[in-house]
Amino acid sequence: MVRRVRHLFSVFALLAMLLPGGLTVGPAFAVNPDEVLSDPVLEARARELSAGLRCLVCQNQSIDDSDADLAKDLRVLVRERLVAGDTNEEVLDYLVSRYGAFVLLKPRFDWATLALWGAPIILLLGGIGFALRALRNRRSESGTPPKLSAEEEAAIADVVEARR
Q1: How far is Cα 91 from Cα 97, in angstroms, rounded to an integer?
Q2: Of the candidate ranges 28-42, 50-64, 96-110, the one whose mean pLDDT is the lowest
Q3: 3-state secondary structure of 62
Q4: Contacts for 92-97 with beta carbons within 8 Å, 24 or more apart?
């Protein structure tokens, strides 16, 4: 009983130490106050766009979450384009033309992405087809043994007679 109480106490102590840190962890936005637009509609569009753009330094974060200098420059560029009157698609087209399709966290559907996403499926189906053909060939080979020629049967008969 004492061991259980000690165990429970140590678990509660560990939770008490981790809980304050866990409460402060949340989505980190790296957007600085000087970047925020005064127009809430444009700012919402800027946040929506920057959430879908890859930080080219971090590569696994959006520019909205990244503290890298290039991410800040991209956030500012997005806001400048929106203030200039560009639509969301025009902003994305501009960034893709300047930095390549890698800047998009969710790439657009085109022939390159079709090949990228379709290749594993094609390879999987090809592998299944190859395995089925090999299995079918193995079954047909193991069905009935090939017929012996007359010379082979005579040689076997001679060996059997010699053993008797």
Answers
A1: 10
A2: 28-42
A3: strand
A4: 92/49, 95/53
Reported as a single tens digit per residue, the pLDDT across 13-30 is: 555 666 665 544 444 456
Q: Are 78 and 86 in contact (CB under 8 A)?
A: no
User: Which stretches of the chain are DSSP H helices?
Assistant: 2-24, 40-51, 69-83, 88-99, 111-142, 150-163
**One-letter amino acid identity for 134?**
A
d(CA 55, CA 70): 7
- Convert the pLDDT of each residue in 73-91 to its tens digit: 999 999 999 999 999 999 9
Q: What's CA 35's distance to the chain center, in Å?
A: 31
**Nearest CA among 77, 36, 74 for reference residue 58:** 74
pTM beyond 0.90: no
Record the tokens describing residue 70, joined without a space.
Answer: 């290039």
Q: Tokens 């384009």 belong to which residue?
A: 81
Distance CA(7)–CA(1), nearest Å, equals 10
Distance CA 31, CA 64 (A): 6
Contact yes or no for 91/75 (Cβ under 8 A): no
